[in-house]
Amino acid sequence: MILEDTKDNHAKLIAFQIFDAIEAKRQNNEHIILGLATGSTPILLYQELVRLHNEANLSFENVYTFNLDEYYGLNEQHCESYHYFMHHHLFDHIDIPKENIFIPSSEVEPIFLKDYCIGYEKAIQELGGIDIQILGIGRNGHIGFNEPGSSVASITRKVKLHDWTKRDAAPSFGGYDYVPTHAITMGMKTIMSAKQIYLMAFGENKKQAIKQAILGDITDELPASFLQHHDNVTYCVDFNIKN
Ligand code: PGA
Q1: How confident is the model at residue 174 (pLDDT cuts 50, 70, 90)?
Q2: How remote is the CA of residue 32 from the centroid of ligand 1, in Å?
Q3: For the segment 28-81, what is each residue's pLDDT rounded down to a tens digit?
Q4: Which of 86, 127, 179, 199 is surrounded by the most beta carbons within 10 Å?
């Protein structure tokens, strides 16, 4: 489904859907697993979830979260790390138990990486799989850090960042040369296994990528296009997709 609306309305709508899903699980004494994204795109959604926590008693006590990705080799205290981002925008303001938060570690020794990534996949599966996955999209069609060339069968792994990804991150890092070269990301298979997906794409600079993802060929050159094979994706955009 494609929804065209303002960024604010998308954030509110998705936050309400998450609210309802958390509440429904809580009433059955069950937990829910959210797959979370970073970047500028989901910030309004996190603000909205914090507001619902403060003003509508939304509790995250039965919530587990798995983040899509993290820069490899970047100190987790660094202000550009996704650990920092998630705590700053969401986790520090809600009542989620600390032990329910999973973000790929940036600091795993190379020899332990393979086992670490398999462990990340296992943790998701053992808890029952991701119920709701939040996604942004890169200008090159990446989701998570599944850059062009990522296979539909890929799982959590270390990847090399694409030139465009580094260029887009350069201003925040104070220059291209300071952007980490690698990251750990959930794979396409991990993402495709989520039961429900919201993909948000805001701004004209995302239009080309999202149009190709929805209407173009399914190709590993544009990993978001694989979502055409998923039967429960809501594409939330703030422009007219047909223009
Ligand atoms: P952005 O990044 O939300 O900062 O635009 C999205 C992405 O690259 O996946």
Answers
A1: very high
A2: 25
A3: 999 999 999 999 999 999 999 999 999 999 999 999 999 999 999 999 999 999
A4: 199
C-alpha distances in angstroms, 168 versus 4, 130, 162, 171, 209? 25, 28, 10, 7, 14
Q: Please say whether the beta carbons of 202 and 96 come within 8 A.
A: no
Residue 200 alpha carbon, nearest atom of ligand 1: 3
pLDDT for res 241: 87
Q: How far is the CA of 40 from the centre of ligand 1 (A)?
A: 6
Which residues participate in catalysis according to the annotation? 69, 140, 142, 147
Query: Can you state the percent helix, strand and coil of the chain, rounding each to 5?
Result: 40, 20, 40
Taking CB atoms and a 6 Å cutoff, what residues make up the pocket around ligand 1? 39-41, 136-138
Q: Which of 36, 41, 179, 185 to mutate to test the pocket of ligand 1 (most atoms within 8 A of CB)?
A: 41
**Mean pLDDT over the full length of the chain:** 97
* Predicted TM-score of the model (pTM): 0.97
Atom of ligand 1 nearest to the CA of 38: 3
3-state SS class at 197: strand
Where in the chain does DSSP place strands (E)? 2-4, 32-36, 63-67, 69-71, 101-102, 132-135, 157-160, 182-185, 196-201, 233-237
Q: Taken in order 118, 187, 102, 140, is the CA torsion positive or negative? A: positive
Name the helix (H) or strand (E) containing 126: helix 113-126
Contacts of 70 (CB under 8 A, 6+ apart): 76, 81, 82, 83, 103, 104, 105, 106, 183, 184
